[in-house]
Each structure stands twice: as C-alpha cells, then as structure tokens.
Amino acid sequence: MSFSFGFTKDDFSDDELDESSHIQPTVPSTTQTQPNKGDYLESLTILDENLPKKHSLDSILDTLKDVRLTFDNYTTTGQNIIYRRELFDVKHQIMMEADNQNSKLSELLIDENNNDLQKNVYEGGFKSWECAYDTVDKLSQLIDQGKLTSSSILEFGCGTALPSCFILMKKIQSKNTDPLRLTLSDFNFDVLRLVTLPNILIHWASTLPVEQLHSLTTTENDQRFSNDELSLTPALIEQFKKDLRQYNIELSFISGSWGKQFNEIISGDNVDLIISSETIYSPESLPIVAESIKQILTNSNADSSLAIVAAKNIYFGVGGSLVEFLNYFNQIKSAEFTVTVEEVNDAQLKRSLVYINYSS
Ligand SMILES: C[S@@+](CC[C@H](N)C(=O)[O-])C[C@H]1O[C@@H](n2cnc3c(N)ncnc32)[C@H](O)[C@@H]1O
Hints:
The protein is of the alpha/beta class. It contains twelve helices and 13 strands. A hairpin with a 6-residue loop joins strand 12 and strand 13. It binds S-adenosylmethionine (SAM). It is an enzyme of class 2 (transferase).
C-alpha cells in the first residue's frame, strides 16, 4: 500500500481493526513550549488555518445536495449494528465536485501516489477506529439500563462518529423526545462533511420504514433503490430536519484544533457527556485531551457529567498510552472528579474505557 492515510484498499473493511492500523506519528497542529502539568492548553499556539470553527447543520447539508451515499454495515462484538459510509464513495464525491474547491486534504485523499502523512492536515478522522465499537457497545448497555440521560453530548475527535450515530439512532428508535444537543467535532472540516454527517444521515435513515425511505429517495427520473445506498434528495433532507425537530435533536459541528479556543466555543453548551475514542494516541494529544475534558466539564453548568475516553492501552510507535493519560489526568484533576477504568478483554491488543465523572 503506498497511500499514507492508513487506509487499506478495502478502506472500511475489518482489516483496519487489526494491529496494522496503528496511527502513524503526526506533527501537532500547534506550536508549543514545554508547559507544566495542567498548563498545556495555555501554552498552545494554534495556527490560524487550524483555529476551531462552528458550522451549522444547514451549511454542511448544502455541500451534500443530491449526493448518493454508499455504505456498509458492521455488527459489533456486542451485536449492535452500525453503518459506515464507504471510503471509495467519499473519494468519488470529491472527484465529482465540479467547482474543485476541495481542500488540500481532499486532494491528498484522492492522490493514491502520495506517500507522506501531511502534518497539520489529517488526524485520522476518515477511518472508524477499533475503540469506537467498544464505545458503541458501552453506550448500548447504558441506554438499555436507562442510564444515558445526557442532554448535551460532545463527541471530541469524532471522525466517523459511530458513537453519536448510535445514540441518535437509538433515540429515534425509542421515540424519545427529550432535548438533546449533539456536538460533533473533528480536526478536519472535510471529515465532518464527508463522513460524520453522512453517517448520521444513514443511521437516521435506518429508522425509517422501507416504503417511506423508498418514496423519499427516488424521483421520477431516478427510481433506483438499494439497501446499501442513500440518495440525499431534497425530500429526504426535509424529512431528516423534520425528524430532528420532532425528536428534539440539535446537531452542531466544530472543525479545527482542540485548545482553549475550542473550549471557549463549546462553553455555552453545558456539555454533560464527552465521548472521545482513540484520541490519546500521542504524547502531544494526551495532555490536550485530559485538560480539555477537565476544563469543559468544570465550565459546564451541569451538576454532574461524564467523559468516556476509549483507547488502546498502548499505542506502539506513537507514544500514547492509557497509563500516561491516567497519570496525567490524576495529577491535574480537582476533587470533583473520579476516574474508573474498564478493560475490554477480547483482543491481544488491550483496550479500555475510562469513565471520568464530574460532580459539582
Ligand atoms: C484516530 S482518530 C479517531 C476517530 C474516531 N473517534 C474513532 O474512534 O473512530 C482521531 C480523531 O481525533 C481528532 N483529532 C486529533 N488531534 C486533534 C486536534 N489536535 N484537534 C482536533 N481534533 C483532533 C481527529 O480529527 C480524529 O477525528
């Protein structure tokens, strides 16, 4: 394989779940001096092009008009079915976009001869990483036990956003109308528009009766209907927005780098659940994730809140590790935080779920 983004030729196949999918070292999107523990965010200087930006649902939907999504489905260890837009389909969309206003990332994505991972360009969001499935299984248990009652959820470094997609799908399936704000964040805007929102749409569409889905996705000129494709017709998008309103779901999106600017953007949202899967993979990202969780939950007005950090115990070759993350968080945490760890024992490469509870 010559391409450096870590995709196999099968893109989203199960192959990516083996050890060959270790994240390659990347250069952070920031410059920094040597900070003291707890001062990492303060010391970051984020490059202008990577400053975080909020995006409305409509602005991202506008980039997906009449796109036909191709997806596959995957059954997790816990027997939960989730859907993933195929990567070849993402590449196809990029190539079809006539205005050619694609970012550098998009150019790299379709250039199979590019050998180098591009610093400050890509942080792994196009793939679904192994711990995202562990997170889905845990969320499934919490939902079944009636323990997932959060009203403002942030998926921090969401990529394909399978945990958020699963939460949205379950909420609609159970006809739950409690207000829910779902904020999806990724380093790359292109990840948000090309896989995050498409995956959300696919999971939502899976909740529709087949007849309704058929009538919403076919037009007089195009009567094709297939189990692994979804046409984003104007009628389908309207129904999507209608259902979001009906189920009291507000979706928002943030692209760009983590840091204090990111935490300022999110501060009004009163986040009471942070989900972060496979984000503590490097010595640079680990303190940022730890400090951001502390800051976001402390600044939220929620009385009690939780962060779920899903990670491999060791990231070979890149330097991140669960132990280092836990040590770091335990050193910076205040008395309101308690931390517990659950190991996932179904593979040679150990993985864990960290629960960081905050109670004011
Ligand atoms: C390895 S991917 C994991 C994606 C997804 N959570 C999963 O488990 O499949 C790491 C994620 O963290 C995000 N990320 C990494 N460093 C970041 C940074 N400095 N600022 C913002 N996002 C970052 C990437 O955009 C990407 O979505």
